[in-house]
């Protein structure tokens, strides 16, 4: 079975070129991929990536500030259970932004999000595409229409 349906064409996404990955947009594949990431013990990367995508949609500085604080607490703080691996420069930027009390820019997470995307793209997505979890999902979906058609007869 070919799994070419998972990837689309490259496109421009915020300040970096990211593939148009159907996994992170498909209502059926997102929970499946999240479950796979949990099993692989690296779900924090995917959850962080998803939260940053939501952060980018926020328009008001007040909303961005509140959401930044939540993301900081959950993924950046050294006390976090899901602390992200990041450069010292990024950590300093986030700590300064948090200490300033000002609303962060829309693109404050771009650098670390790109790093997470590259890691998911090179490590996690290839394993997911080869996983029994995904293959079973496609197999069950391929079987579903034929079962429904036989019930109608």
Give a written overview of the molecule:
It is a single chain. This protein is mainly α and 153 residues long. The chain contains 6 helices and 2 strands; from the N terminus they run E-E-H-H-H-H-H-H. It has helices at residues 29-39, 43-56, 61-76, 88-100, 110-130, 132-152, and strands at 7-13, 16-21. A two-stranded antiparallel sheet has the order 1-2. A hairpin with a 2-residue loop joins strand 1 and strand 2. Helix 1 packs across helix 2. The longest helix is centred in the last third of the chain and has 21 residues, at 110-130. The chain starts with 6 loop residues before the first strand and ends with a helix. The model is unreliable at 1-19 (pLDDT under 50).
Core attributes:
153 residues; mainly alpha; two-stranded antiparallel sheet; 6 helices; 2 strands; elongated; disordered N terminus
As an assembly, this protein is: single chain
Gross morphology: elongated
**Radius of gyration over C-alpha positions, nearest whole angstrom:** 18 Å
The CA-CA distance between the termini, in Å, is 28 Å
Mean pLDDT: 82
Number of helices: 6
Q: How many individual β-strands?
A: 2
User: In terms of structural class, how would the helical and strand content be classed?
Assistant: mainly alpha
Order of helices and strands: EEHHHHHH
Main sheet properties: 2 strands, antiparallel
Proportion of beta-strand residues: 5-15%
Question: How would you write the strand order of the largest sheet?
Answer: 1-2
- Indicate the low-confidence ranges by residue numbers: 1-19
- Percent of residues in helices comes to 55-70%
